[in-house]
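ARCHIVE CARD
Drawer: 12
Card no.: 0347
Subject: one protein chain, sequence and derived structure
Cross-reference: see card 0346
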Amino acid sequence: MFGRREGRFAASEKRMSMTGASSSSQQPAMDGFWENVKTILYALALAMVLRFTIAQPFRIPSGSMQPTLEVGDYIVVTKWSYGYGRFSFAPLEGLLPNGRLFGSAPQQGDVVVFRPTPEPDRDFIKRVIGMPGDRVQMIDGVLHINGEPVERESLGAVEFVNEAGFPEQVPAYRETLPNGASYTVFDRNPRGELDNTRVFEVPEGHYFMMGDDRDNSADSRVPSVVGFVPYDNLVGPAQFVVASFDSSTSLFRPWTLFTGFRGDRFLKTVE
């Protein structure tokens, strides 16, 4: 009788011992799991802080800034360059007041991401052409600032791949602003709709923006779409292209991430 009880006690102790061993073996695994979760959360938090305070990536969806920026370019925009405004911190943009912290003015010729007053929920990217107090006008496709034509050198017709992925010949010009900033623009139609405009007098605290593809850009020449851009609406200047994919790329065909990658644009500086 005592032998059977001792046997049952021994079996019970063995089961308890096995259960304890199993629990103790699971504990390090659970500790490792929660450490991984914390690491991921810390990394995400750091990424969000960097995105809202240091730099933010943007994708170029249209050809209005060709040839400087192509459709499918992924660019990096720095947040600190012009200081921090109400559109610098995306989750809080509706709660922040006007004005900029550590603000500094953009330079003529900068390529800038901003929010236009008519469409404050959309990001636009254009080039700063007119500074506060400037008078800007297009006459027969030639940019005039303060009554003087901007220096423009013909580069002839250059071959360029359009938004549909097909090559085309486009008349190109090298334009140089009064402060020395120089860049290439397209002028597809010598008698385009926006090649002749009224004189735009840029108000204080505002900027006049234009796309480099002059006949394919809704910019400050179109007040109902962009108009004059307030200083407070600037997000930051584009610095470089971090990656670029052509029109054949699709996430549903993963191999095209390699075949459609434009290596010649990798880390290309935006000028």
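Annotation on reverse: Residues 2 and 123 are 84 Å apart (CA to CA). The longest strand covers residues 151-161.
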